[in-house]
Amino acid sequence: MVEFLSILIIKTLVVFAVSMLIVAYSTWIERKVLGHVQLRHGPTRVGFHGLLQPIADGIKGFFKEEVVPDNADKPVFILAPIISIAAALSLLVIIPFGDSVTIMGHKITLYLTDLDIGILYVLGISTIGSYGVMLGGWSSGNKYGVLGGLRASAQMISYELSMALAVISVVMVSGTLSLVGIVEQQAGLWNIVKQPLAFFIFIVCGLAELNRTPFDMPEAEAELACGYNVEYSSMKFALFFMAEYAHMFVFSAMVTTLFLGGWHGPLLPGPVWFFIKTFALIFFCVWERSTFPRYRYDEVMELGWKVLLPAGLLNILLTGLWMVIFNI
Amino acid sequence: MDKPDYVINVSSRRPEKGKYLLPLFKGLKYTLQNFFTKPITIQYPQERREVRDRWRGLHRLKVDDQGKLKCVACGLCAKICPPQAITIVPYEEEGQTRYPKEFIIDEIRCIFCGFCQEACPKDAIELTKVYDYVDYHREDFIFDIEKLKHPERFVFTGK
Could you tell me where the DSSP H helices lie in B83-141? Predict the structure, then answer.
């Protein structure tokens, strides 16, 4: 019992620490990549190639003055960033970083839990994250905040649906809802080959869920002056940002797990492959952000409901037919 | 309804739906190319843009081989100076050459036109390439002879 608990606690700490490090350094990756795309250097002053920049930013976040607007709904205003970050961090539980390894006679699995309904857990909890955004915008007593929050919730509801449809076709192919099971099933052939359309839908919907360009409606700088987090300052603002980057990491990990074969790969050990794929996807998120302009709001809705949703349904239909015809 | 030729109907030139998909990938390619291109930033205090030789920056009062000022305090530069930024107090002992007792240039007033170096008959004043002198007080920008002798030490290094 003690052994089980201590292994679990150590694993939790390691996963948490590594993930927070990745979250912090994805801000560095973002600024660095954006800089180089725009023929700039990005952060260079703090540490070697600006590597200490996230830490400096964190310290700055802690020590800045905290402002709560007069007409803010104070309890909700404080609660919103907590919801955001909590939802983002609880998603780390089910990420399968790798297969099991044996250390000092103990068989240790490189994931915290293997939920039987892992993929449902991901979809559910990641939707809760949108409550943080929505409540944050609503409670700050600012019209830009409200608009940003509303847009965020509308967008997340619309895209969550198509995302779930994309996931369903993956689940149909895999025959399991457990993330570990889905990865194990991809040992021979990655799901991206079997489900290219689902992969595309999942990526697009994921970007919309992340509120990233080209779907950064909730924080459209030009229209909403930063959107739902206008009134937030210091560490609360930092929490929103950490939640966003944690979501980006989880999204990349999910794409890796569902479509790119998780820890499978030749030569290198499993977790290394997992992180290579995840970082490639994080790079993709930043890369497309530096490229694409923002969609207009009605176009976002149109794309979500009129293109992605039918495409998702069609994909499920095709997958079903394929499975019936070839009797899989 | 006939419209004149110069009226362009933007709405009729709208691209078809979905036409933007290919340009999106083109854009991705372009940004990736940029990503692997060397940044064109000049890291300013450490690296500096090389300016032309004719650049008109801070003034220098030239000295001759003995280390004495070439200036003979004729006052031509002060006379020609459009914003009247130069003040000269001449001094002359019996039988000696005139030299400036005080030579003050107000670098805030100066418009860096370079007339002073053009007017100087003795080639005693020139404009250097130093373009980034910074200081805290307005008085610091009123340069006396000592400051004017070596403007190069005022190059900004970020320290």
Answer: 115-119
| CB of B9 less than 8 A from some CB of A | no
> Which H helix or E strand runs over B72?
none
Q: Does B37 sit within 8 Å of A291, measured CB to CB?
A: no
Q: Which of A116, A317, A300, A279 is nearest to A197 (CA)?
A: A317
The per-type count for chain A, helices as H runs and strands as E runs, is 13, 2
Q: Is A45 on the interface with B (CB under 8 A)?
A: no
Closest among B93, B92, B96, B100 to B69, alpha carbons compared: B100
Rounded CA-CA distance A68/A237 in Å is 12
Please tell me the pTM assigned to this model. Answer: 0.82
| High-pLDDT (> 90) share of chain A, % | 2
Residue A296 lies in a domain: yes
- Within-domain flag for A229: yes
Domain range enclosing A140: 67-97+112-325
pLDDT confidence bin for A328, thresholds 50/70/90? low
Instruction: Give how many domains chain A has, as a whole number.
Output: 1
- pLDDT class of A220 with cuts at 50, 70, 90: low
In a domain, A18, yes or no: no
Q: Is the interface score ipTM higher than 0.85? A: no
Predicted local distance difference test score (pLDDT) of residue A317 = 92
CA distance A36 to chain B (A): 5
**Could you read off the pLDDT of B88-107 as tens digits, one per residue?**
998 888 878 888 888 899 98
Cα dihedral sign for B137, B142, B144, B147? Answer: positive
